[in-house]
Amino acid sequence: MNFKSMISALAIGFLFGCGLIVSQMVNPDKVINFLDLTGNWDPSLALVMVGALIVFGPIYWFVIRRSSKPKLADDFCLPTKKHLDSKLVIGAAIFGIGWGLMGICPGPAITNLASFDLSFILFTLSMLVGMKLAQLKR
């Protein structure tokens, strides 16, 4: 990875983290309330998701359809699989259950490391161990 790519990744990661903070997706209580459809439901995160799709959709279409290659990489890294398999479904289910139980997922967990809260540190370490174990199984 060259210097321009690293600076670009750092800037985009910082912007993403700021977006997570502003939208309160780093707040587990806010996320759990969003997922609690029959209780204390808070629909505000749906607006965050819709807003993200409104921004992402046209930009994705423009970049993928109009560019032969990315500015800071050799090729686009797009998924090649077109069908669902059991690994994808099971992984998505585990992710969803974890997100629903804890109210936090990888991006917000990493953003929350800045709080030095032990629960976010343990969550992130567990996530990294799980990722490493998944790589070893391949």
Automatic annotation (TrEMBL):
Domain of life: Bacteria
Record InterPro entries: DUF6691
Keyword Transmembrane helix: yes
A Pfam short name: DUF6691
Entry keyword set: Membrane, Transmembrane, Transmembrane helix
TM region positions: 44-63, 88-110, 116-134
Keyword Transmembrane helix: yes
The name this protein goes by in its record: Transporter
Record organism: Catenovulum maritimum
